[in-house]
Amino acid sequence: MNYFIKICSCLLALLISSSALAELPSAAQQPLLQELTTVKLSKTLPVLQQLEASEGADMLPLFKTLLGGNLYFVREDGRLLGKYKAQGATLYADLFTGEKLVDLTKKQVKKIKVNNRLRGYLGEAIARIQLNNSDSDVRAEAVRSLFSDLDANTIELIRTARLDEQSRSVQDVMDVALALYRADNSDDATERLQAVKDLQGSLEPPVRNQLTKLAENDPSRSVRKAAQKGLDKIAKQAEMYSFVNQLFFGLSLGSVLLLAAIGLAITFGVMGVINMAHGEMIMLGAYTTYVVQLLLPEMIEYSLWIAVPAAFIVSGLVGILIERLVIRHLHGRPLETLLATFGISLILQQLVRTVFSPLNRQVATPDWMSGSIEINPLLSLTLNRLYIVAFALLVFMILLIVLKKTSLGLNVRAVSQNRDMAKAMGIRTDRVDAMTFGLGSGIAGIAGVALSQLTNVGPNLGQAYIIDSFMVVVFGGVGNLWGTLVAAFTLGIANKFIEPVTGAVLASILVLVFIILFIQKRPKGLFPQKGRAAE
Amino acid sequence: MSILDSTRDAMRRDQVWSFLQEHEQKVDISHQVLLYVEGLNLSFDGFKALNDLNLYINDGELRCLIGANGAGKTTLMDVITGKTQCDSGSVYFGQSINLLDKDEAEIAQLGIGRKFQKPTVFEAHTVMDNLELSLKSNKSVLPTLLAVLNGEEYDRIDEVLETIGLKGERMMLAGSLSHGQKQWLEIGMLLMANPRLLLVDEPVAGMTVQEGERTAELLTSLAGERTVVVEHDMEFVRSIAQTVTVLHQGSVLAEGSMDEIQNNQDVIEVYLGEAP
Amino acid sequence: MSGFMSKFMSFSRINGDSKVAPFVVLLLTVTVLASACNLLLPSDSIFYVSTYTITLLGKYLCYAMLALAVDVIWGYCGILSLGHGAFFALGGYAMGMYLMRQIGDRGVYGNPDLPDFMVFLNWSEMPWFWQGMDQFWIAMLMVLLVPGLLAFVFGWLAFRSRVTGVYLSIMTQALTYALLLAFFRNEMGFGGNNGLTDFKDILGFDLQADSTRVSLFIITALLLCGLLILSKKIMQTRFGKVIIAVRDGESRARFIGYKTENYKVWLFVYSAMIAGIAGALYVPQVGIINPGEFSPINSIEMVIWVAVGGRGTLIGAIIGAILVNYAKTKFTAIMPDGWLFALGAMFVLVTLYLPKGLMGLWEQLKEKQQQSKNQSGNDSPNEKAEEGHA
Is A339–C351 a contact, with Cβ atoms under 8 angstroms apart? Predict the structure, then answer.
């Protein structure tokens, strides 16, 4: 409990310090901004240039909004607004404070128009501002955004920036841009050849386009040949990276399966209790996340840290309740347990439908989980999937440690191996049963938190995973956690590699059929328990 | 039984006149040995349950198998009756039948009966039905569907009911019998099948002294007619023993008459020494 | 009439006393009465039974047949199949294909050769498995063969490698789930998620006509009675005794020489065929078959019908199916949201407090009554043997 309080207070402190205020326009800029709302379209350019010269970096949102054609101002006071769409409705927000202005009607605002000349200028200005940004990723991105319309001006811009550039990765991108320009525009065949050589090894999509163009049309044979060579190299790399990408998707699906199945591996695998309501434990976990976000709307960033323990507790308690009230009375009658827990799953689903409505609920993804890591232009790993792979492995490890190192784990293993003997040794088997079941259910709840980040949360969430989870546990060998791990990742990866060939539905059918056939051949799974105890 | 097997049987010289012979008599015991167990090995997760075990059982012999817990008695029976697959070794029934490539049902149809430690009868069936199911008959699906008890079979059932002393309980549900009665019913079920080899696992476990004595009588009376292998504690073995085999850590430690065994130094050390 | 009745009674006589014969008589009487009240009485009479009710009753009887199929395999052999919905749906699809072919050029697109959905998908010719389905006898053969074959293949694989208990249940559930996914695909050639519908007539009789509806209802009742008696007879042969032996002690049955896997496979096939017939009778009465019938929850719902009625008693399964479905009809009319709560509660309560179902409860009450009359011990042992133990 103490821990919990500590964590909470830490989170609170973080929250306060991080809510930094948006930069407001300086005094010098205010009249220029006002002028922007009144000036004619043909006279806008000088105003923008002055703005850029004054304090360019702060004007980035303004330029971007203007370029997108979303810049408005309030007719009354000339306050600048950005228009954006949220959930189908059009909303306006103050450009600098970010304050949402809900009750503005269309008549009260006016759009600031742009023409093509302004758009050209804005694009360059944004690139210029970003090239001076302190974040190297932003600078690299700015160079990339210039790839599509390289001309003498932009090249000059990049060349100047290149001189001061310190970051190695940004330098590379800049070199690619320069080489691209040379390869396209130089009249000298040797210079083009050199440019093509410089471009080799780069995976930027424009490079590929440029090389294709050169390989087909360039007058010089040696340039064509070099370009073709470069293309082949890119194709080879693309193949490899698409393999890596599929592998990653497979791992990600595998980790979802692992999370869903690992609780079952305890209740079904270790305890031998078949719990058809396991999917609903996952669903409860996902709804817990939803409720946590609902209760603490301003703490979305940290909601998952609260949701994980909360989901564990909620699902765990429901699990213990089910064990106490129903499963305990059906000991040694697996088929009856199956039916009774199926009944419970129906009740839980309907309960959620009644309380939360049958519609899907959206759970927000915190910023630190959205986005992706771009390793190179052909390979980027989405962060949420990456986190879930890590999270699944972490949960697995913790569980392994709990079972191997704690006294609860010792008791669980003792009871699962020989109930009567354990009882004789003074282990309170009924309590151990309840705790184990609670543990398995709680982990299902945690899985629900993770799943809520990948899919919509609805009453049928659990149903979608229950059969898969059982397949994973059975495939891996009942009572063997490592088996579950291997099975989950095998099935996940297999699924993702079959998918491009056959389509998603047929892939899952094939995997199901494969498992059915596999179980015929090895009824005890991949890693069976041996010996007389197994029977 | 596949066509190939039956043709193969038909071509064997001693089987040419198969219609003259009883179904069970195709077991070739020309060397008086009914069961060969040679070089049997089996390990569970590193634990060697059977360790190069060799055992020969003669036709018509009453053999007792003894040994401490974990000596491999039950495991040996499991391998012989096809319940467990062994890692290496061979088990032959008579001269020619390899038991290792057959499953439980085929082995049972060959005439090897098995009685488990815990009495397992079909509790939802009457005593009569239990015996009917165990009748030596064609046990494939269609003949069973069309099977009707004939007079001869009724007589056979009556005879067995007499032997096991359950005549009065004929129409009772097996589930409502006492523990000892269930044990006898199970033995009766084995008798119905008229087996060549009867493997009996701890037949007097949980019986009263009187019941145990009756069981001993029953088993002794069976010997000579058909081979019986029994394993149980020393007390019971002493009362019925002819030849005794002592198992220890998955292999045969000693073999001989009860007297020889009792004086065997090794046996005294590992087994009798611990016995009360 | 009474001569015929006594003959019939002796045909369906069971060792000891049994309720099958009286039950069959009751069922047929109700069927004949309801049919007569629909066809002969004017629609303003108080005793008039509407065609809607007849169809509803016919539907219940199809479910009862399905429950019979589940009970044969679960109640008597202890194999809990959560995939019987698949056999039911396959039988239904076979019938649906025949009915689809009967539409001819009366479809929306008026194509004389191809069913509407194929025209919609721009298919130029009929897939091979639709060939011949315009022949009633071929379709009926498929009603039996397709579920039977699937059950045989699945059972042969599963039982031979000794997959039992909960594993088997999960495998059967996965089977029906895989079929569900497959039948949702348009490329399968079974109408995708819309399934097969808009049927016009069967063997030349208009499906909307009262007489056709009543005939279908009567045929369902007759087949149900026939299958009930057949199943009862089968369970009384030595084959049936082996089946119960497998339920109560499979390894023992093996050790006395029965290849239990063969027994289980054939019983599974028999059960799947009953389910297929039920599906085939269901489709013309309900007028549609779609992949939803494959969904795992349907298959598991069937199990609860049997559990409520009392497994291991064939009559119990039938009564359970009719009762639960009647309750469902009533319940969903009054408060649709409540039904799943009720169903869920039924699962829990029946398994906890009524393991032998309503038939078991009735038995118990009767026994108590007898005990209070001090007449205990009259029960024939066979009676008890019929009740499930597993």
Answer: yes
Cβ-based burial of B60 (10 A; exposed 0-12, middle 13-18, buried ≥19):
middle
Instruction: Sort out which chain C residues have CB atoms less than 8 A from A517's CB and list them.
Output: 157
All residues of chain B having their beta carbon less than 8 Å from the beta carbon of residue C254 are: 103-105, 108
Concatenating the DSSP letter of every residue in B143-163 gives HHHH----HHHHHHHHHHHHH
Element (H, E) at A80: strand A80-86
C242-291 pLDDT tens trace: 999 999 888 889 888 899 999 999 999 999 999 999 999 999 999 999 99
Rg (CA), chain B: 19
Cβ under 8 Å to A: C residues 44-63: none
- Tell me how close the Cα of A505 comes to any Cα of chain C, in angstroms: 7
Q: Which two tokens stand for residue A340?
A: 């009774």
Q: DSSP letters of C210-235?
A: HHHHHHHHHHHHHHHHHHHHHHHHHH
* C-alpha dihedral sign at A250, A255, A256, A258: positive
Strand A80-86 with A89-94, pairing: antiparallel
In chain A, pLDDT over 70 holds for what percent of residues?
Answer: 91
pLDDT tens for B247-264 read 888 888 888 888 888 788
Contact (Cβ atoms closer than 8 angstroms) between residue A332 and residue C164? no
Edge-to-edge strand ranges of the sheet holding B33-44: B47-58, B33-44, B88-93, B97-98
B101 pLDDT exceeds 60?
yes
**Cβ–Cβ contacts within 10 Å for residue B148, how many?**
7
Whether residue A523 lies within 8 A of chain B, CB to CB, comes out as no
Neighbours of B270 (CB within 10 A): 18
Contacts 24+ apart (CB under 8 A), C348-355: C348/A326, C348/A340, C348/A343, C348/A344, C348/A347, C350/A339, C350/C304, C350/C307, C350/C308, C351/A330, C351/A336, C351/A337, C351/A339, C351/A340, C351/A343, C351/C307, C352/A326, C352/A329, C352/A330, C352/A340, C354/C307, C354/C308, C355/A336
Are A267 and A318 in contact by the 8 Å Cβ rule? The answer is no
Closest CA to A387 of A256, A250, A247, A244: A256
Exposed (0-12), middle (13-18) or buried (19+): which is B70, by Cβ within 10 Å?
middle
Of the candidates A282, A279, A283, A305, the one whose C-alpha atom is nearest the C-alpha of residue A292 is A305
For A519, half-sphere exposure in the C-beta direction (CA atoms, 13 angstrom radius) is 32
Amino acid C3: pLDDT: 54
Q: Which chains touch B (3 or more CB pairs under 8 A)?
A: A, C
Pair of tokens at residue B218: 């029953």
- Beta-bridged to residue B245, according to DSSP, are B65, B255
Structure tokens at C324: 């639960």
Of residues A279, C367, C373, C371, the one with CA closest to residue C383: C367
Domain B60-77+113-272 indexed as CATH 3.40.50.300: yes
Domain residue extents for chain A: 26-117, 133-219, 246-534
How many other CB atoms are there within 10 angstroms of residue C79's CB atom? 27
Per-residue model confidence as pLDDT tens digits over C61-97: 999 999 999 999 999 999 999 999 999 999 999 999 9
Instruction: Give the integer Cα–Cα distance in Å for A439 and A399.
Output: 9
Query: Cα–Cα distance between C317 and C321 in angstroms, integer?
Result: 6
Instruction: Report yes or no: B164 and B203 within 8 Å, Cβ to Cβ.
Output: no
CA atoms of C174 and A515, how far apart (whole Å): 9
- The SS3 call for residue B229 is strand
Nearest Cα to Cα of residue A84 among A107, A61, A50: A61
CATH class of A246-534: mainly alpha
Q: Comparing C-alpha atoms, which of B204, B259, B192 is closest to residue B230?
A: B204
C103: helix, strand or coil: helix
Contact assessment for residue A175 and residue A187, using Cβ atoms and an 8 Å cutoff: no
Maximum distance among all alpha carbons in chain C?
Answer: 77
